[in-house]
Design a protein that fits this description.
The complex is a heterodimer. Chain A is an all-alpha fold. Chain A is built from 20 helices and three strands. Classes of the chains: A mainly alpha, B alpha+beta.
């Protein structure tokens, strides 16, 4: 039943809508990068194919990705299940190799230089491999994903590259691995875990926002109300009261010890500062253990909320209709740092305003829903898990990237899929997507 | 196996949807409901550049530009781009060393940051400009930027024209609503200040897009929001550059002033004040060097003596005194006074220069001979006029005449800070003598010969001459006759200069008598030896006593006698007789104006007069004491030729004339004795004598003193 390479079968079963959306997104991406780099004093028509500018490089990346996409569509879909384990191991080895071969780009040592001045970021590729191995693991007949043991094994598979990413100072990439929670949830992870994680997140935010005493009163009040309202049930089972009290104590521990510990000892100073600046507070770097030695060098840099401020100005100044194509003053003046990569959304927001950003979001929402539909129509667990992993990764990237440009999330280095400049990123998303499309084309098959 | 979880796909869709709604909500708030981001973006990215229009030009009566605009070049540098500069060559051209080079670069960085261009050397000379353009390719990051500065092609009329300078905080406070900004230039004195609103034009604003480092990317929206700069409008005067230059040249080495008016219009033909300065020295890079020196100079070269100097008019006042007496009917033209060289009616005898009998047998004779006794008597008659019952009333009437002649009050010339000089008030005499009833005409007797508390500015004296020349009226003296493209506002501004000022009702025949008398002054009187080839003229000499030293030499006149075209007042401070110094100067000015050229004889006279040194010794001594001997070098006038602005740079470096130094030395030894020069061999001996270091030190200082002379 292997997919032959003849033309008739090539496009058969492949989801053309997704391919179309993919092409539109890549085109928008190149346009945005062009807007960022456009200089009216230079003749841009010549530089389109010289590979000296970022947009022209991105075109070459896109062409290369096109070949990769075709290649993937030609591969037998069984190959993905077969290679899942070995590719994961390879990916982890590559990540370990960065500690030796790594090249320092923008303060993170996560790149391996390859021929022609290009650099490869193994952590990016590891997303695909992790998605594959997770799919492989869950789809195994002996795995019962309702059991805690399976959850822990899956968790370790996901956590390993994430931890390596943190060690490479790539907080953003590490966070992406939390996107696999979608796939795990879909396959049977109890919702309680989601609730607990959400509560924890709310608790952390509340810790930052509120005074400790206020928060303590609120927590105690909630616990008291909870016990009072359910007094009858608690009479039947005394253990329940203990559970509530335990939760109450854990919450206190989080507020009093865990959160300060995370901010002062786990995060780097700039990360803590970024999170604090999100809620409009200032973080005192002298409390941070990690940056105690490096405070001097940071002082000369621009304030940490500079990026977000400029990004919000650029998007906000777009207004309803936008300033027009190539007319964005903030984009032309290069006010937003890293605008061609992580902050590419700002050029879109400034040039095309709310109309542009809303259309763009709608396009992406449609894209994600389409992927979810694809995921749900899979008969094979492997394909479905993989599909949900892709949905999760795409969604996480889009949500976090856009949220950070509009000030809803601290700044972490996460690119906007298919739009941001960067070969590694484009290649990863292309591979992710087209493996899914390849699997989807064979959706009638039950893969192992 | 896990199909039972299929509802979870829906939940995932809901989560995705909710997050997207959240993002959309934030986008709505940012892009639709917050206007502050547009403002912030404009603040970030739009750079407003003020375009300064060319200032208006001021022309003389033959449409020669008294001042105009020149392009000056600055050497600017963008520190970040200044890499691989051939510093050795650059330092060589600018005559600085490498330390100075790095210091200037650092200064630019401090002022304008690394990425913006800042001025490395301002106001390059023509020579430097040429050298730098040739070698500019060796200095990456450096470029030449032009700016418009004032230049004065005739090096003349500095006091009248005034200067422009960068506005300061005080100025901005005073002119808060006139749209000036820091860095603007505005007229600070003279006509530049008086007509600032016309000369400055209207600034334009260009909007540019700039990047995060402040670099300009190009015009914003193709310049559709830019406003155009409107050039300042030109002003037209009746001044004559050549007469002005002549007047200034004649006042060289003297302290004094020359004012020449056209009596028919009140227009100023020439107004010179000495010591002066070359106006080009207050433009460009000369300014910083010059202004301090000018401000501290004891002879006050910035001070416009023509409108601010207060001098006792002396005998030049006599025609006015006679007019009052005639008008009041106190005397007739045939009134005579028997003067034998002394006026004794008030006890203390007053001297008259003449004692031959009959030198004051009538008004005409008295004027021609400038008889003191005659005019003292006439003054007393005016004050003690029986018509007004007492001396106080008589004096008030007299003062009223004075004021209507334009004395003792501001004339309203179009220059800032004109002085009213002084015709004393009765209150002052009441105070002096302890009450109105305690004084009479004898107490201020010498007012009758233009002394006592009476003072006048040279401008007022020239105007009084115009008044007599016109037989009873004058036009407010002014420089600006018309403005280019005159509008209603300008007309209003100049209105006052176009109205005849006719405040007295003195019959013209009295003026005729005075005119005849003043004519006689030039025929056989005190100014008989002063001639204007081809023209009869009327004049009055004056030799005013003053408490500050030697008499001031004064001379007032108008010419030609019939149909006067020019009225002149000349004052040379502490020079002696009016006829000796002020008279010839006035004569030459008239000749130049009426004939447009000078005879050969007159030219020799000009050369002689311009080289006569009448500077008070005290001032010269001050220069020597303060090591400012360069001030004794007069301004070089390129005799009626257009001077290149760049020449002026050389001027300040000209060494003082050797001959001059000798006289100064003599003067200085007289005024402030300095230690004698230590001969070199003696000094050598002292050097060998290391046992007495204090003595050695003293001698060395004294040597330094002498060298600096």
């Amino acid at each position: 039943m292997s997919a032959s390479s003849n033309n008739n079968n090539f496009s058969k079963g492949t989801d053309l809508a997704v391919i179309l959306l993919y092409l539109i997104m890549v085109a928008i991406g190149i346009m945005c990068i062009f807007m960022v780099e456009y200089n009216p004093n230079l003749d841009w028509s010549n530089s389109f194919l010289t590979a000296k500018t970022n947009y022209s490089k991105q075109i070459y990346f896109a062409i290369f990705c096109g070949f990769v996409a075709i290649f993937i569509l030609l591969i037998d879909s069984k190959l993905f299940t077969a290679l899942a384990n070995i590719s994961y191991v390879l990916g982890i080895l590559l990540m370990l190799a960065t500690f030796i071969l790594g090249k320092n780009i923008n303060g993170s040592k996560s790149w391996i230089p390859i021929a022609g001045g290009f650099n490869l970021q193994p952590a990016e590729l590891c997303k695909i491999f992790t998605a594959l191995i997770l799919a492989k693991f869950i789809s195994k007949p002996e795995t019962d994903f309702t059991k805690l043991k399976s959850h822990i094994v899956a968790g370790i598979m996901i956590a390993l590259p994430a931890v390596l990413s943190i060690m490479q100072h790539e907080m953003g990439l590490a966070l992406v691995y939390s996107a696999f929670i979608f796939a795990m949830y879909r396959e049977g992870l109890p919702p309680v875990i989601l609730v607990i994680l959400l509560s924890f997140a709310i608790l952390v935010i509340a810790t930052l926002l509120l005074e400790p005493i206020t928060l303590a009163i609120i927590l105690t009040a909630i616990a008291g109300l909870f016990i009072a309202s359910m007094l009858k049930r608690f009479k039947r089972n005394k253990n329940n009261i203990l559970i509530v009290l335990a939760i109450w104590m854990v919450s206190f521990g989080t507020v009093r010890f865990a959160v300060p510990y995370i901010f002062n000892n786990v995060f780097e100073c700039y990360q803590s500062t970024r999170i604090y600046s999100m809620i409009g507070k200032e973080y005192d770097c002298s409390m941070n253990k990690k940056s105690a030695s490096s405070t001097m060098e940071r002082k000369t840099k621009k304030p940490d909320d500079y990026n977000v401020k400029q990004s919000k100005i650029a998007i906000g100044s777009g207004g309803f209709w936008g300033r027009g194509f190539l007319k964005g003053t903030q984009t032309r003046g290069k006010y937003v740092p890293e605008q061609h990569t992580d902050f590419i959304f700002t050029s879109l927001g400034e040039a095309f305003g709310f109309v542009g950003t809303f259309t763009f979001l709608a396009l992406y929402l449609f894209f994600l829903f389409r992927l979810i539909r694809i995921a749900e129509r899979q008969r094979s667990t492997f394909s479905r898990v993989y599909a949900y992993s892709v949905v999760g990764i795409f969604f996480f990237h889009i949500a976090v990237n856009i949220c950070m440009t509009i000030g809803l999330f601290p700044v972490v280095g996460i690119p906007l899929p298919l739009i941001s400049y960067g070969g590694s990123s484009l290649l990863t998303f292309t591979a992710l997507l087209f493996i899914l499309l390849r699997l989807d084309a064979d959706r009638q098959m039950v893969l192992r | 196996m896990s199909m039972y979880n299929s509802n979870r796909g829906g939940i995932i869709q809901i989560i995705v949807g909710v997050i997207f709604i959240l993002i959309t909500a934030q986008l709505i708030s940012l892009q639709i409901f917050s206007s502050k981001y547009v403002l912030a973006a404009n603040n970030n990215a739009i750079f407003r550049k003020i375009i300064y229009p060319d200032r208006g030009i001021i022309y003389d009566r033959k449409k020669r530009a008294l001042l105009e605009n020149t392009i000056s070049y600055d050497l600017v540098v963008i520190p970040n781009e200044a890499k691989g500069v051939d510093t050795a060559t650059l330092c060589d051209i600018l005559k600085i060393d490498k330390a100075a080079y790095s210091k200037r670069i650092i200064d630019v960085i401090i002022k304008n940051s690394r990425v913006k261009s800042g001025i490395f050397e301002a106001f390059l000379s023509a020579e430097l400009y040429a050298q730098l353009t040739e070698n500019l390719y060796r200095f990456p990051g450096f470029s030449l930027s032009e700016r418009s500065i004032r230049s004065y092609p005739y090096n003349t009329a500095a006091h009248v024209l005034g200067y422009v300078a960068e506005v300061d905080v005080n100025f901005l406070q005073k002119h808060g609503d006139e749209g000036y900004e820091m860095g603007d230039y505005a007229g600070m004195t003279g006509l530049e200040k008086q007509y600032e609103s016309i000369l400055m034009g209207q600034r334009g604003v260009n909007r540019y897009l700039r990047d995060n480092k402040g670099k300009i990317q190009g015009p914003f929206e193709k310049g559709q929001f830019d406003t155009v700069a409107i050039a300042g409008r030109n002003l037209f005067t009746s001044m004559d550059v050549e007469v002005q230059q002549l007047a200034e040249k004649l006042l060289q080495h003297k302290i004094g002033s020359v004012v020449a008016l056209n009596p028919k219009t009140g227009s100023v033909i020439a107004m010179a004040s000495s010591p002066g300065y070359n106006p080009n020295l207050l433009t460009g890079n000369q300014r910083r060097k010059t202004i301090g020196r000018l401000l501290t100079d004891t002879a006050r070269p910035i001070y416009n003596r023509a409108i601010k100097g207060q001098y006792p008019p002396g005998s030049t006042f006599k025609p006015m005194g006679a007019l009052i007496a005639l008008d009041e009917g106190l005397i007739t033209p045939s009134f005579g006074y028997n003067c034998f060289g002394l006026y004794t009616s008030c006890g203390d005898p007053r001297k008259c220069e003449h004692h031959n009998a009959g030198h004051a047998a009538n008004l005409q004779l008295a004027l021609a001979n400038s008889c003191n006794s005659y005019f003292l008597q006439v003054f007393r008659m005016a004050i003690d006029n029986p018509k007004y019952h007492n001396a106080k009333q008589g004096y008030l009437k007299w003062k009223q005449y004075m004021n209507s002649f334009g004395l003792g009050r501001k004339l309203g010339i179009d220059l800032p800070s004109e002085n009213r000089a002084s015709i004393p008030d009765t209150a002052q005499y009441n105070k002096d003598f302890g009450g109105a009833k305690y004084w009479n005409s004898c107490y201020m007797l010498t007012l009758g010969i233009g002394q006592d508390r009476m003072t006048a500015t040279p401008l007022q004296l020239a105007n009084a001459m115009a008044f007599i020349a016109n037989k009873g009226y004058y036009y407010t003296p002014h420089f600006i006759d018309s403005v280019e493209e005159e509008d209603e506002l300008d007309k209003k501004l100049l209105q006052n200069f176009r109205v005849k000022q006719e405040v007295t009702k003195i019959p013209t025949e009295y003026f005729d008598i005075i005119k005849e008398g003043m004519h006689d002054v030039t025929v056989y009187g005190t100014a008989a030896f002063i001639k204007v080839p081809g023209h009869e003229f009327c004049a009055k000499t004056g030799t005013a006593q003053n408490p500050h030293g030697k008499n001031h030499s004064l001379f007032v006149c108008f010419a030609p006698k019939d149909n006067p075209k020019i009225a002149v007042a000349v004052i040379v401070e502490n020079a002696g007789f009016g006829a000796t110094w002020a008279g010839p100067i006035a004569g030459l000015v008239i000749e130049k104006y009426l004939n447009d050229t000078l005879t050969k004889e007159s030219k020799t006279k000009v050369d002689y007069l311009s080289n006569v040194d009448l500077m008070p010794a005290a001032i010269k001594a001050w220069y020597v004491r303060n090591n400012k001997t360069e001030m004794l070098t007069p301004i070089e006038y390129n005799n009626y030729e257009l001077a290149d602005i760049w020449d002026m740079e050389m001027l300040s470096e000209t060494a003082p004339v050797a001959a001059k130094i000798d006289t100064i030395k003599k003067l200085d030894t007289a005024a402030a004795p300095v230690q004698p020069i230590v001969p070199p061999n003696k000094n050598k001996k002292l050097k060998e004598n290391a046992l007495n270091p204090t003595l050695k030190k003293k001698k060395v200082t004294s040597k330094k003193n002498n060298v600096s002379i």
